[in-house]
Amino acid sequence: MKKLIRSVCIFLLVLLLAGCDDGVYSSTLIFKGSHTFGPETNLPGDVLLRAGTAEFSAGSQVNGTVYVVGGELLANGRIAGDLAVLDGAVTLGPEAVVGGDLQDGGGTKRRANKAVVQGETITGLALPLEETSQLAGWQATARWLVGALLLAALGGLLTRWQSQPLHNVAEAATAHWLPAAALGLLGLLILPTLLVMMAFTIVLLPLVIILSLLIFLVWGLGIISMGAQLGRWLAVQLGQPISPGWATFGGTLLLMGLYALPWIGGLLLGGTAVLLFGAVLLSRFGTQTYEPPATVIRTENLSAYERP
Amino acid sequence: MALLALLTSLVALGVGFAMQRRGWSTHLLRKLQLTLGVVLVQTVLTAVAPHVASQSHFLLWIVVCSLALGVGVPTTFSLTVDLIPVRDRGYVAAAITAVAYFDAAAFPGSWQVEPFSRAMLLIMVPGVLTLGGIVVLASSGRSFVATWVAELAENQKRARFGRGRFLRSSSGRIDRRFLGFVALLFAIFFVDSLGFLRIVDTPILVDGAWQAVTQTPRLIIAVTHVVAALVAGILYSYLNERHLFYWIFGLFALTHLSYTFRVWLLPQTTIAALGTPMLYATAVSLYTVVNFALWADLSTPQTVSGNTAVGVACSGWAATFLSTALAIRWQTQGMPLDEHLRIVQALALLFLLGMLLLAIRPLKWGVKP
């Protein structure tokens, strides 16, 4: 019980700390009523208009994206980001400037001749994916190598200090791969929806960050556990006595190398992500050894078979 | 509908306990004979359904339907202890769930009596003929089928068939733990029906999903049902009962939360977003698998018919009837859609929270974790 209380306290503390940082994300939500934003208005983040009326006068500035999912928007100022319209009525006045794209997913729109959309006008609900700058050549290799080395080193250290959780996760993933995969599949099916829902509430946005961090930790724990198993297996195959820490280091590095292979690497990563996610849940983050119910243990001893 | 629910429940309870008292619960051939009778009546009912033209005929149709269902549930569910080993029950339940939901979602046809009747008869007639052949040959006692049925009848005497995995006491009779499962299943059926009845009545929520004009969205939902059923079958076999119910209530709460946001944010827009329907399909497949396998796993061969009757009548039918009546009442009173879904979501969260509290305070509540 003390452990539970301590965990809850740490969780609350992290939550509070996450909420302390000012200016991480701010937005304006309009659910009803009539709102007029004068020329001196300078809103720092996104604006979501769900219902009611919002009027942005000439000279006003919105520094994020404006999402219109209902109600009426009269924009005559500058919108630095995109203007995404899913429903409702939007009027762009002669002084209106949209710095990003106009995403037309529904509703009604009126646009003055002098209104400016600096980006593209996109019809439909497909949101444009921002092109991320892909590192190429030695930069990408160096980045991968640093990440893999760090994870492998963490694995080696964990094996020295806390090897039992890694063993529990690896055993759940290998000896009980079927329930681990099933649980992983179910978890990964639900997680995206859960994250989106939490983000929608705005209030739970800090929790989204914590949950995302938790997912990363789960993934890392899973990779290291599997790396430890792989390292031990390799040591036995090679007939070389290798210390558990170095075996984990080598195994994790090898696993990361396999993930970097073209085509096969992606498939392998997807498969092991499902398996390891389930294994981590099944072993309760490595805190206990998963024991299947006695009813599912199958005997290989054919003498036990009895003909009716 | 009240008549159907009440009569079916009473018949199921009566037949279930009568089978238990007379020892038919452990008599495979008798159960097969009863099943044949039920399937025959249901086939006739399906065939005559399009021709029911008057209120009195419809009332008679409902009464006969109730009788068939009431006899059918304890009879067919109790076949589990003869035919399916305990360790395979999750997988078998998953296979049944997957096939049923795939067909329902992928080939919905027109939601009218005539096409339904025609489609069902295509499956029911061959089924009746096959079962009829087995029962007649087994009852005659002079064929290889009779030997085969006699061998199958011995299965329930073995521990791997006859002792359900959630059984704690040796008697397998109804106790507090059993009633706890009835209450949990009641809550699941209640939450599901209360929400889904309103969802299917809201075109913006179903036009892009279950009733989509194009085949693709329906196929995606059908495949989700299959995958979720297989996952549920595995998890039923490997997880303990408490964790299964956490997942189910959690999923229902998340699904209705998702629908609430959808209605609240985009009240008039028809967007064919399949994320929430897929989540719903997952939750439904998960609990259907549990419902198929659970009652036999809480019983011995002697008590399976009575236990199943209590379980299905008091959880499934009672909950579905009550929640359907409530949903219709709320709708006719003009309750807004988002408020309706918010209550359903709150109920699911409440049940989840209740289970978590039980897990934290096991001793006080008399339940072992």
Average pLDDT value of chain A?
80
- What is the count of helical runs of chain A? 7
SSE-based structural type of chain A: alpha/beta
Oligomer: heterodimer
Which strand-content bin applies to the residues of chain A? Answer: 15-25%
Radius of gyration of chain B: 21 Å
Low-confidence stretches of chain B: 363-369
Helix proportion range of chain B: over 70%
Our measurement of the CA-to-CA distance between the termini of chain A, rounded to an integer number of angstroms, reads 50 Å
Q: How many strands of chain B?
A: 0
- Largest sheet descriptor of chain B: none
- The topology string of helices and strands of chain B comes to HHHHHHHHHHHHHHHH
Largest interface: A-B, 30 and 39 residues
Quick overview of this protein structure:
The complex is a heterodimer of chains A (308) and B (369). Chain A has 308 residues and is α/β, with parallel strands linked by helices.
